[in-house]
Amino acid sequence: MKTKNSHSKGLLKEIKEWTISLGIAVVVAMLFQNYVYAQSEVQNVSMQNTLIAGQRLIEDKWSYHFHEPRHGDIVIINGPESDLRLIKRVVGLPGDIIDIRDGEVYLNNEKIEEQYVKGQTFAGSVAVPFTVGAGQLFVMGDNREHSLDSRAIGPIARSSIEGKAVLRIWPLPKFGALSK
């Protein structure tokens, strides 16, 4: 027969185990959120019609540790180039020459087919043709007439890329992978 004292010890041991388990779960979840995958919300109209304000995304913070951004990737930017956290599409990689003529974007003298673009593309304050430097990316919003992007603020440092938007999770009818 168990005594009241042994029952109390068993209860304390179980509470201690649960506390440790929950603490570990919280730490793992926080590390996962900060370094692997995170949830982000679209805040502006610069990526319409691909992304609309209020949509929620899953951001991959992990894969760019193993490979560099690619043309067409939708990236989250959090750096000194802007006071705001930005979501943009990668148009130019280091060594690429970006040109804008007659409302169209040219990458290394070849016109880019961009079915996702809303509006015409005009050159901004950055002189074109523009050669993307080492450690930099040239990014633009899909809503070209209403986007604060590399045409206005210049190239983005590779180190300012927080991650890649990979999945739209809200609203539910739009749930799915983000493609190029």
UniProtKB/TrEMBL annotation:
Keywords linked to the UniProt accession: Hydrolase, Membrane, Protease, Transmembrane, Transmembrane helix
Record bears the keyword Transmembrane helix: yes
Pfam families: Peptidase_S26
Keyword Calcium part of the UniProt annotation: no
Coiled-coil boundaries: none
EC number(s) given by UniProt: 3.4.21.89
Domain Peptidase S26, residue spans: 16-170
Protein name per the record: Signal peptidase I
Organism of derivation: Paenibacillus endophyticus
